[in-house]
Amino acid sequence: MRSHSPRPVGKRPAIAVLVALVAFTAAACTSGGPQAGSAVAISSGSGSQAVPPPVVVRKNVMSMTTAEKTDFVSAVKKLKTTPAPNDTRVTNWYDHFVAENLSKLICWSATVNQGGYGNYGPDLLTWHRAFLLEFQDALTQVAGHPIPLPYWDWTDPASTAVVFADDFMGPSGKSGDNYVVTDGPFAKGQWAINVKGFTTDNPGQFDDLVRATGTIGDATELPAASDVQHALDRPLYDAAPFDPSSDSDSSFRAFLGGNIGASGTQCKEGIIRVVDASGSRLDTTVLRYVGGVNDDGHIGSLTDTATAPNDPVFWLVYANADRVAEAWWKNRKYQYLPESGGPNGANLNDVLYPYTDLTNGSMAKPAEQLGYSYDSLPTAGGVPETLTTVTTTTETATTHTTPTTTTTPTTTTTPTTTTPTTTTTNTTATTSTPTTRTSGSTTQ
């Protein structure tokens, strides 16, 4: 995914919670981290298990029954009112996942096992796979029965209509409301934003969901099915230098990652950013399309890479990205590259921070071995590739630094939690025609 900065706001400090996250990150690396992958029912190393977990099926949203959609939404909202196990950064379990996602954007330090950004290198798919499994397990725990993550096939308009219906994720916002979501189960007053993004990238600092759908110039439409086919045709999992600048003609991960024209990453003000991306594709396009940018030029909730899980649509987007990855892996003998010599956190046997009992290799295996499957997988032509071993000694040009005290806000406040109500508003939304803006498409 891309790093987003809609307009310069000076060298302002990151959000107050960043200070706590930096300290928490250091402690997590030695203590096993928040939940330390405990909610992910998979083992470390090769990922072998004595007894395979029961397999649940992740469905296309179009195949979900009314009861299943209600069950999913109810479990998501219940996480928002349930205390977070073993995570003192936040006051509820849902916000644990937002804070965890944000912590992956903090520049690497020399702390043992820290590495990988979960968005900009080979661990894009392996880390998100573990992240989705932890979230799926949390839903199951609060619901008291299995809740498989559904997926949104963003190439299918019919699937899109189901996602944004009032009885599921709810519609986008309207220009008259500055694109704040006012209908559906995650509307203003029912879903509070507590963990907020870095002020340099997200000066809006919204308290409610913002969906300014289709208003960013490079993401006015959702990806086409042909883009998924092109992704599945890439011959290698990844290629040097294993960052956003990797050759997307060869690298499946780089193509799916969607940062067109990027020259790499940089650490700036303690935050990792993509450099020089001129456009987007696939899951990055989806996030930018849904979140958009409001009338004030501030990015919407799903557009903000650091805190994108604030919008529950995030889970449907990445379940589909994982589905595409499973299709590629299944046709390529679950290849993962690099095996060694790549950036910290990117190699086959590197710890999948903060899941200290997992590695990239333990996630690059059949989904059934991790306890789930998909009701269908996208297909592509061509002959499956023979497993290719690639070892590189060329380190990425990314600068790895520990955020300094200069990023500490002069005034710090602990984000307060507003407990949302459980009433669902089902009002038919009147959608206004969005205005396309280029604000929010500039990368740093």
Please describe what this structure looks like.
The structure is a single chain. This protein has 444 residues and is mainly alpha-helical. It is built from 10 helices and 8 strands. The strands form 4 sheets. Strands 1-8 form a two-stranded parallel ribbon. A hairpin with a 2-residue loop joins strand 6 and strand 7. The longest helix has 21 residues, at 123-143. The radius of gyration is 20 Å and the shape is globular. The two termini are 13 Å apart.
* Broad structural category: mainly alpha
> How many H/I helices?
10
Q: Mean pLDDT, nearest integer?
A: 77
Regions with pLDDT < 50 over 5+ consecutive residues? 1-50, 382-444
List keywords for this structure.
mainly alpha, two-stranded antiparallel sheet, 26% helix, 444 residues, two-stranded parallel ribbon, 10 helices, globular, disordered C terminus
Summarize the structure.
With 444 residues, the protein is mainly alpha-helical.
Write the layout of secondary structure elements.
Layout: H1 16-31, E1 56-58, H2 66-79, H3 93-103, H4 123-143, H5 157-163, H6 225-232, H7 252-257, E2 259-260, E3 264-268, E4 271-275, E5 279-280, H8 282-291, H9 313-331, E6 351-352, E7 355-359, H10 360-363, E8 372-374
Parallel strand pairs: 1-8
Antiparallel strand pairs: 2-5, 3-4, 6-7
Helix pairs in contact: 2-4, 4-9, 8-9
